[in-house]
UniProtKB/TrEMBL annotation:
Organism, scientific name: Endozoicomonas elysicola
Xref: Pfam families: HSP20
Family that this chain belongs to: Belongs to the small heat shock protein (HSP20) family.
Keyword Glycosyltransferase tagged: no
Residues annotated as domain SHSP: 35-146
Keyword annotations of the record: Stress response
Protein's name in the database: Heat-shock protein
Keyword Zinc: no
């Protein structure tokens, strides 16, 4: 797959407040290059569980819970797998199970937070939820008298 490098300088010169979007696009392009370099290891799924609930499931066979780290930083979910060194000498005829370290990054949208993580049968499940602030939720505006104006009129009388 072909990747493109974008120059967002014209956007910065003429648009106010879109720097976060440009940064997001740049980081997505960089993370795509990282995925291509790592051959998509470890594989993962992203599920929509409900309108505002998501789950990332990663196949982390061979990793123990204490060899995995999950962190959110500046709107990015980072999952690290650090395999402990095994001093046991082994003679493989074929080694198809990857035992290498990894770092997987996911860009989180505004108001999305991690609510928990579990391990089950070699799968790491990370649950996320979008919590829309009360001020941004749709609300119905009643048509009628303005209560603020009524209060000011009562004070002035």
């Amino acid at each position: 797959m072909r990747t493109f490098d974008f120059d967002f300088t014209p956007l910065y010169r003429s648009a106010i407040g879109f720097d976060r979007v440009a940064h997001l696009l740049e980081s997505m392009n960089a993370s795509h290059a990282q995925v291509t370099k790592n051959n998509g290891y470890p594989p993962y799924n992203i599920e929509l569980l409900d309108d505002n609930e998501y789950r990332i499931t990663m196949a982390v066979a061979g990793f123990a819970e204490d060899e995995l780290e999950i962190e959110t930083r500046e709107g990015v979910l980072i999952v690290l797998g650090k395999k402990k060194t095994d001093e046991t000498e082994r003679k493989y005829l074929y080694q198809g199970i990857a035992e290498r370290n990894f770092e997987r990054r996911f860009q989180l949208a505004d108001y999305v937070r991690v609510t928990g993580a579990t391990m089950d049968n070699g799968l790491l499940h990370i649950d996320l939820e979008r919590e829309i602030p009360e001020a941004m939720k749709p609300r119905k505006i009643n048509i009628g008298q303005n209560k603020l104006l009524e209060a000011e009129a009562a004070e002035g009388a």
